[in-house]
Amino acid sequence: MNQKQAPEILSAQEVFSDVQDILDHAPIGIFKTTPDGPFLYANQALADMYGYPAPQDMVVSVQNIAAELFADPKDGHAVASLLETDGIAKNYECEHIRKDGSRFWASGSIQTIFAEDGSVSHYQGFVTDITERKRSEEVLRLREIQFQNAFEYSAIGMTLVSPEGRCLKVNSRFSDFSGYTEDELERKTFQDLTHPDDLDSDLKLVQRMLAGEIETYQMEKRYFHKNGSIIWGLLAVSLVWDDQGAPLHFISQIENITNRKQAEEALREREQCLRLEAEQRRRAEVHLYNILNAIPDPVFIKDKNHRWVMLNDLFCEFMGYSREELLGKSDYDFFPEPEADVFWDKDKLVFETDEANVNDEFFTDSNGVRHVISTKKSLLTMPDTDEKLLVGVIRDITDRSRAEDALRESEEKHRHLFETMAQGVIYQAADEYIISANPAAERILGLTLDQMRGKTSMDPRWKMIDEDGTAVPGEDHPAMIALHTGETVGPVVRGIFRPDKNAHVWLSITAIPLFQPGESKPFQAYATFEDITARKQAEQKLIQSELTLSNAMKMAKLGHWEWDVPSGMFTFSDSFYKIFKTSVEEVGGYTMSLDEYARRFVHPEDRHLVAEESQKVLEADDPNFSKYFEHRVLYADGSKGFIDPDIPSRLIGDEARVRQILFNLTGNALKFTNKGSVKVEMTAMYSEEPSACRILVTVSDTGIGIPEDKLDDLFKPFVQVDGSYTRSYQGAGLGLSIVKRLVDLMGGRISVVSTLGEGTTVHVLLPFKLPEGVSIAVEQGPRRLTEAKQSLRILLAEDEESSSFPTTKLLEKAGHTVTLAEDGQQALDLLAAQDFDMILMDVQMPVLNGVEATKAIRESTTLGAKKDIPIIALTAYAMLGDREKFLAAGMNDYLGKPVKMEDLVRVLAKYSV
Questions:
Q1: Closest-CA residue to 374 (of 410, 337, 406, 346)
Q2: What gap in Å lies between CA 763 and CA 785, rounded to an integer?
Q3: N or C end of the chain: which has fewer CB within 10 A?
Q4: Residue 219: what pLDDT?
């Protein structure tokens, strides 16, 4: 095989067709010189560099290169020496001189060209202008010197840190700051020196700087000193990048701020101490204020200038001015000068002697009324300031002084009354013996005072009996109980044996204990009594008559009356015989005239209303219940009550039972209402069955009301609220028991809400069927009633069914969703588990009452936004000051019970969003 032949090596002249042209136009200076120094050749770039117009000018002009072109002759000799010894001077840098005498820096490379005989033929080389580079290097050198000086002699610590955190270079200030030598520091990283609590935030800033997000950062951080202590530094960091855009090192400047931080910490501690001291003073003042307010007398505190600095509420009331008007003022600002002089002198005496004094003084109040007061003044030394203050406690003894005068007059009047009153009065001492009796007592008991004096209630000759005829032990005599318990007893009815008649007399007795001032055990008791024997006998006859009527009613023990038009009498209704499965023949028939009914069951002032209303009911034979209810509404001014327009004109139900329920409820309300009004409201309620509806009937009055302890017996037969033997309202007590029985038979529900002295509200919910094709507009009713713009989720916290039942129905009728909680704790649990728009909160509940439950909601740390839910208090006992108490507990408003529809409308409109 033939081998490849090597390529032919060509000469420069063969490669470059015009080498001379290349040399002439090269961008760097090119030259050739004789061994003696003159130029043989120079290109245009070299001529330009030295300031000659053309190369030929330079060749002709320069005869001695070393002497004429080198700024320092030493450089010429140095180059010559290199050429002589090495044959080449490569990249030799020195200053050169231009034609105009200016200087510039150049880098030259010169080579010796030898002849064939070994002699120097000539020199040739290249020259590059490096003036700009040298200037840059000089600037950089100066900067480095400046940086080095700044670094070394800086007033704050400085260090160069590698991107990995290693200390590359540190100055003496940082060495002093950290306690380490420069050599020790250069073997550590900044992580080694940084407090761990500050390291994470520092590293995050470093990462952001390396990522190019920030150029510098500054932070306060803690370092570990070599001795183990913690020192503070204000760190400022910048990053130096290399020419390739890579991070070179960090420049960290650290100012020692340990003293400043310690001063700040000391300042914070001082401020904290001051805050604590201020808080302690504030608490002490609040505590002192609470103590002053707990004192049941007016109290004031004065400073050494006799000016008021603290007052309790009673002092402000006593003076008739607000606290703001009194504080900082003296007695001379409010009292006549003679009175103020007395107060000033008494105050001064306390300040000078440090001894308390008690004085009877006189002062004129803001209304010009002159008072007699007893004032105790003493000195108070404040523990924190040793300030001397005067504390005064005032007791107004004007009334006591007047009372003492009045007592003297009263004792004389009492003596006269004691002698002339119709009631018997007997006084017994603490040892239980009778010590006094008035003439009426002698007359009623048939005994003289001498016969009674020295007797006790324990004496068996009294032969005391109860109403049922059983003997009453002597220790159960009302006077004995009053002496032993210190409580008023009665009135109670007891039978006492009267010797002169050899029979018992019936007495209504009240026993009252008497106390000496400041003592809890009675020193005497007195019993007042009246002879009720005749009334007792009459009542026995009445009870016997009612028992006869009860027997006629047999097992039901209920009356069921209706008005019979043809006979003009009250008689048992047909429903009575159906309910109790009896007949006219078995009962024997029973009728009662209108006059007799009114006399037995109705207050005299209302009897004409019963007659008129009875006739109206009988005339309303149309089963249109709206019309029927309109006839049943009674107001003092003759106006009519509320009839829900959603109620259909006809309903399917037991008209007779409804008639009897309404007759008994309104009749009962009229009987116990002497003034004001009796009203009936009828509201349609939603039913789940499309063909049915429920009617909520509300009968309310402004009558005598019902005590809370009587509500449980309200529906029992032969029970009246006014159960005393002097009751004003007659009747057998059968009306509400009849209503309860009828409501139960109809499958309805009944509840009663009452406030003693204010009135009673009865709610009856009755079911009815709807005629074919009739429906109730359940959507329109709620919007009309409440004017609310949305259905609300309401949490009703109420433990009494008599209140929760009607309130729930009213709210449901209005289109709202109601969830019932039966105590305060259950309300909290439901609120935590569910979402509500509003809470109706009863005040009196078991487990947690309404106030406690409200505070727990408002202070909760787990309920989130729910703790701000609107809360409306429900209370039957709203008194003066209760509103403030409810609002202070966190409630938004309150409603009185029984809850009225117009009040619900107001609250829903006010607090719904």
A1: 346
A2: 18
A3: N
A4: 93
Cβ(786)–Cβ(776) below 8 Å: no
CA-to-CA dists, residue 766 to 683, 725, 741, 814, angstroms? 11, 36, 13, 18
What's the one-letter identity of residue 148?
A: Q
SS3 105: strand
Question: Which region, left, alpha or beta, applies to residue 475 given φ > 0 means left and ψ of -120 to 50 means alpha?
Answer: alpha
For 626, residues 6+ apart whose C-beta sits below 8 A from its C-beta are: 643, 647, 649, 682
HEC string of 500-565 equals CCCEEEEEEEEEEEECCCCCCCCCEEEEEEEECHHHHHHHHHHHHHHHHHHHHHHHHCCCCEEEEC
Which residues does 245 contact at the CB level (< 8 Å), separation at least 6? Answer: none
Helix (H) or strand (E) holding 418: helix 398-420
Q: How many whole angstroms separate alpha carbon 692 and alpha carbon 685?
A: 10
pTM of this prediction exceeds 0.70? no
Gap between the Cα atoms of 235 and 584, Å rounded: 110
Instruction: Give the H or E element holding residue 217.
Output: strand 216-224
In angstroms, the CA 47 to CA 36 distance is: 20
Q: What whole-number distance in Å separates Cα of residue 580 and Cα of residue 576?
A: 6
User: Quick one: which H or E segment has residue 115?
Assistant: none
Judge contact between 188 and 167, C-beta under 8 A: yes
Q: Which amino acid is at 629?
A: F
**Cβ contacts of residue 185 below 8 Å, gap of 6+?**
159, 167, 170, 174, 175, 178
- Closest residue by Cα to residue 867 from 885, 881, 850, 855: 855
- Give the range among 44-53, 590-599, 666-675, 788-797 with minimum mean pLDDT: 590-599
* Cα 169 from Cα 185, distance rounded (Å): 8
Cβ neighbours of 739 (radius 10 Å): 24
> What three-state secondary structure class fits 688?
coil
Q: Which pair of tokens denotes residue 357?
A: 């004094």
Model pLDDT for residues 643-680, shown as the tens digit of each residue:
777 777 778 877 767 777 887 787 777 777 777 777 77
Rounded Cα gap, residues 763 and 685, in angstroms: 13
Q: Are 378 and 389 in contact (CB under 8 A)?
A: no
